[in-house]
Structure formats: C-alpha cells, structure tokens
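Give me a protein, keeping tokens residue-aligned:
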Amino acid sequence: MRRSLESLASALFHVKALQFGAFKLKLHETQPQAPLSPIYFNLRTPDNPKAGPLGADEVRQVAGALIMMIASDQIVFEGIAGIPNAGLPFVAGMQEIANGTLQVVKLQKKEEGGRRWIDHVTAKGGLHRGARVLMIDDVVTGAESKLESIKVLRKAGFIVEDLLIVIDREQGGRKLVEKEGVFVHRVFTLTDLVGFYQSKGWISMEKYNEVLKYLGITS
C-alpha cells in the first residue's frame, strides 16, 4: 500500500496538481481575513468547470487509493456519494474498478446570487431510507461543502457516518465534520505530501517550512 501511495503522490506532483504562491481558498468566502495559502492542490479534471490537470490515469490511481482506504479502514457502506464537482470523477473511477456494482447517490448544487451550495439529491441509486452512504471528495479545508452534503443526505433519509478524502489540508475542516458525527478517512495529509516531496528534493526546505509555518507547525 505504501508503494502505491508514493506512486500516487509522485503522479500528483508531476502533473502539477500542486502549486506554490498565494492563493484564496473556498474558506475565504466565509473567512476573508484568513491568510492566503502558500500551496494549492488542484485535483480536478479538464472537464470540470474549474479545470484541473488530472487525466484518466491519475483519476484511476486516486480511485484505487480510495478503494484501498475503504479496505484498510474497514468502512461499512451501502452507497457512495461524490461531492460535486471534484469528487464525481473519483466516484466514476471507483465504479469502474468495482465493475459497476456500487450504488451511487447523486448530489446537486444550486446557484443563486453568485453563490453555489449543495442543495438536493437527484438520484438515490436504488437505496432505501436508512442506508449508509459514504461521501467522497478531493480535499477538506474548511469543510463547507462537506457539511452541506451531510445535511442534504441525512434529510433524504440516509445514514452518513464516513467521509473519504484524498487530502486533508489540516486547517480545521476534519474536526468540523467529525463534530457532526462523521469520521474523516484521508489518503494523505498536507504535511505527509510536502514532507514526501521535500525528501525527494522536489521542493526546497524553504518551501516545506513555509507550509508548516502556515499550518502553525514547527519543524
């Protein structure tokens, strides 16, 4: 498993899924005074409204890693829901690996006044009320879309106790989700990834320390 995760981390780096600079994140919509992030992960595909660099091979690798996490963490579920839009390609990749046997619940966004939020369920995958649904997404930062999704899925009658993500940016979102009774399973933390990249010599010690300082971690 470790070798597979290192291969995925390498792939994300080489397709330029991470960038360094000064970035606004979704959390800045509600916390405009928060410091700009020195690092940004774009785990989106080219067809996403906010286009990203992940091709079919990278999506397949991510989907494989998510399925490995389900097995290693022994996550129990009856259906999966990708949080739109970034989580949807990973659900499709997982469905491909599972030969179409997964029950997929579809969440939809609503847009009004320039704001978008998770609003309703459009398909229930044939699941009954009380079925356990595992949420899938790319990154957790401030957790706004995750909290919206929990509310919508529970309103639709599903049990939601697990969220599986690719990267935890370690900025409080995981704790907010877990306060709602949903455990966050993560493939990587932000410090995992920058530590790996620095060990390979792909990013400088200066950049590594900059990220740790941003997160309030002393090296």
Summary: The longest strand covers residues 159-168. The helical segments are 2-14, 56-72, 88-97, 144-155, 173-179, 190-199, 205-214.
